[in-house]
Specification:
The complex is a heterodimer.
Chain A (H helix, E strand, L loop, with lengths): L2 H20 L1 H10 L8 H4 L41 E3 L12 H13 L4 E7 L6 H21 L7 E7 L10 H7 L1 E8 L1
Helix pairs in contact in A: 4-5
Chain B lengths: L5 H15 L8 E6 L5 E5 L3 E3 L10 H11 L3 E3 L17 H5 L5 E9 L4 E10 L4 E11 L3 H17 L8 E8 L6 E8 L6 E6 L3 E6 L5 E6 L6 E6 L5 E5 L5 E6 L5 E6 L6 E6 L5 E3 L7 E6 L5 E6 L6 E6 L6 E2 L7 E6 L5 E8 L2 E8 L5 E3 L7 E5 L6 E7 L2 E7 L6 E5 L4 E7 L5
Helix pairs in contact in B: 2-4
Classes of the chains: A alpha+beta, B mainly beta.
Amino acid sequence: MNLIQKICTLLIVLALVNGCSSNKKKNAQLMEETPAASNPVAAPVTSPADSGAETFSTGDETAISGSNLEAEATQPTETVPFPSSNTIYFEFDSSQINDSFSSLVEEHAAYLNAHPNAHVSIEGHADERGTREYNMGLGERRANAVFRMLSLQGVPDAQMTVVSYGEEKPVAFGHNETSWRLNRRVEIVYTRR
Amino acid sequence: MNRLPTRLVTTLLLWAACIFMAPAQATLTIKITQGSKAALPIAVVPFSWEIPGVSRTGVNISEIIENDLHTSGAFAPVEHNAFLSLPHAIEDVQYEDWRILGTSNLVIGRIMAAEEGFVEIRFRLLDTISQKQLAGKSLIAPTSNLRRAAHEISNIIYEQLTGQKGAFTTRIAYVAVEGNRRNPTYKLLVADADGHDPQTIFKYHEPVLSPDWSPDGRKLAYVSMEQNRSEIFVQDLRTGEREKISAFKGINGAPAWSPNGKELAMALSRSGNLEIYIFDLESRGLRRLTQNLAIDTEPVWTPDGKSIIFTSDRSGGPQLYRVDRRGGPAERLTFEGRYNALADISPDGKKMAFIHREKGRYQVAVMDLATRNMLVLTEGRLDESPSFSPNGSMIIYATQEGNKGILAAVSPDGEIKETLTIQKGSVREPDWSPFFQ
């Protein structure tokens, strides 16, 4: 079920609850006279494409009144945007997260904290120079640094996986610093949002 | 008769040999970029084909022998157009014809009919000065595998004249990356030592790395990322059966068979950072060998099975260390430069080949383990993955040519240099097989 559907379901439930409590007398009257109109709010929000939709004909001309409902969410999902970027770059031979990337990591931490069902794969990489298995270790060191920073900002371990690709998955293929700096990176990949 | 420069004619001969050879799956080029000054002259007379009614197949046995001897670096074949005669049988040999050319070594041979599906190859290695036969043999070889028979003859000649066991019937494992760069296919292959007849052992669209031959030559251990994480597999080359050996949390890398074939050293980061472990293949027990916050990886066994040499950055950057297989303190071996990694040990245990960085260039170096003297052997910028041949005479490694990965070889004294272009796509991670029983 996606987010929109969740909100709609929530609204339906809230509306039903509110409808029942504020219009009890009227509904009760209606129920006695016209049993088929006992769930007045359900019909308008039924999806037209829903083949299971039931249509109700009341045959009763009595007006149904209600009040506007305010949309309410129980989670602050609207206020935490999806992070602006998912890649953190590193200096040669270093696994230190540059200050310029701290706010990006904070964005991910905030998003992950606001979405307990979200999950990330923190993928570490190295440039092509040097030996492959040592570069596996370097990639992992970088990914671990990001993991630790997210962890310190409250993200639970269960929401994160760390993996290293070493130098095996470059995004740039030149044998020069222009390419190497693009490959020295950690990618935060959302396996679940 | 004019004598053209040896190297030019030999190169031309090799090109002709490549075209003349049976269409193999791979395009093959061995290029000798630097030869040994001490190479022994040798004349290999094309063998006679004495099978009536049967046309010669694409496999030219004497040319394979000549190529083997040449690419070993130990021999300088005499150009064919200098030959004054073309003997095939010993009674036809005029020794002065060969002494005139300055060669004391002469190889002649005949290919004759044998039972269905086989040929008989008779060859002789003759000393033109003493006029004596140094070696001679009759081989019955299947027509389906004449290359192997030729390599066996090369081994015999090589051993007779150098005193060293020939490695011409050995094989190499390596990784090839083909196709679209952003979504490539990774293949693990095994080919003859001269690059012929590559066989795909495993392929997938996720990375494969670090192949390592078992000491009996029957299995390969390697790392595959098919599950989007690194895991160690062992594959039986005859049956194709694969067994997943190590899939712990974190990195599972750098498998290395012990000389007795009973254990695998490996690098695992299950404890939080990469450490060296030893996995017992019989008991399936795991034993940890290093303990520190550094990256410890790329283990290799010494041939006596007593120690493991590995890469560690515990001093700040990667260097090579040695530790007893039972554990204990690690002894640092490399002190020159700030990057020394990925060792391979010579079969006699005396030398260590590794990757050494100097002025930003990653090159193959060799160190005498007794004197600790180091010699840089290659001139590339991004050389990797050195592996000794099982007779210790050559080191194969990975390098770059243009934008492509290729394999190259160098002798431990740096004298002989070759490039080996054996596959479309980019090639890397060579590992030289042991001698086969």
